[in-house]
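Tokens for chain A. Residues wanted.
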């Protein structure tokens, strides 16, 4: 079973690959570029990427990229819409060079245009991204939201509707436990009752889990991660998810709010303890 965490690539991609096993991580996530901006993206260092890929194979690691938060695939604003599409295409290229199997992107915000509009706009955006996508092996992984503000993608029905027109090999899911808890999808007592875990299309597309505890109570509709066992979800609930036999093949990635990424060593060890 793969458990890992988000890692900084500020010192290079290869460096992150080498840090992962030191923390006990068998998978990791990185930001494809500055998470809060579109412009000023550093030139992709292909030598560093190739070295990282070779080390990943040697160390039996897998990785995913996370797209910038500014991307909004459901926006009614044409300029932001175009920038979002181009940014995601670029992220797929970056991810492929780094031997990464997926790029996580959040569901969009419709900004008052309504949920049906938001989903249709995401179809339009994803179609455009896939048309321009020059990569072969990188999947777009749509992340469920907490349902904050005008976000779409906080119910199973919406998530399935967003990916429906697209082939599974191109568009999959990343499932964030904190967002799902805040959206009311993962119930405190019975997280395994989430209908997605029994849904063939959802499960076939599920390629990553963001394992986070929550600062926000159940159904609180806000995106606020907490460290494992220290939040409103708690260790028992997270254990219930981690040990679900249906999820054993899916890599788990921690995005908990640590002060220093070295602390992920404790977080990952805590998860391994919960797995038993
Ligand atoms: Zn997440």
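Reply:
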């Amino acid at each position: 079973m793969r458990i890992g965490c988000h890692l900084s690539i500020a010192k290079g991609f290869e460096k992150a690959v080498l840090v992962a096993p030191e923390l006990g991580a068998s998978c990791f996530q990185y930001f494809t570029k500055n998470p809060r901006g579109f412009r000023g993206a550093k030139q992709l260092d292909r030598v560093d990427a190739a070295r990282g890929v070779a080390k990943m194979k040697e160390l039996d690691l897998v990785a995913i990229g996370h797209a910038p938060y500014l991307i909004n695939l459901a926006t009614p604003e044409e300029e932001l819409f175009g920038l979002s599409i181009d940014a995601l295409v670029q992220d797929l290229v970056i991810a492929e060079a780094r031997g990464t199997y997926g790029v996580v992107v959040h569901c969009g915000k419709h900004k008052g245009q309504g949920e049906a509009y938001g989903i249709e706009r995401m179809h339009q955006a994803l179609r455009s991204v896939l048309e321009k996508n020059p990569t072969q092996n990188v999947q777009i992984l749509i992340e469920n939201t907490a349902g904050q503000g005008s976000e779409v993608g906080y119910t199973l029905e919406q998530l399935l509707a967003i990916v429906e027109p697209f082939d599974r090999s191109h568009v999959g899911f990343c499932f964030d436990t904190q967002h799902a808890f805040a959206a009311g999808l993962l119930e405190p007592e019975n997280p395994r009752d989430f209908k997605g875990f029994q849904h063939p299309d959802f499960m076939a597309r599920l390629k990553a889990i963001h394992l986070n505890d929550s600062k926000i109570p159940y159904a609180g509709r806000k995106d606020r991660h907490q460290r494992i066992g220290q939040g409103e979800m708690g260790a028992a609930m997270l254990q219930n998810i981690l040990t679900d036999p249906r999820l054993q093949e899916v890599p788990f990635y921690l995005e908990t709010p640590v002060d220093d990424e070295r602390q992920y060593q404790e977080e990952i060890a805590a998860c391994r303890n919960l797995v038993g």
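Residues 143, 176, 210, 255 surround zinc ion (CB under 6 Å). Residues 78-97 form the longest helix (20 residues).
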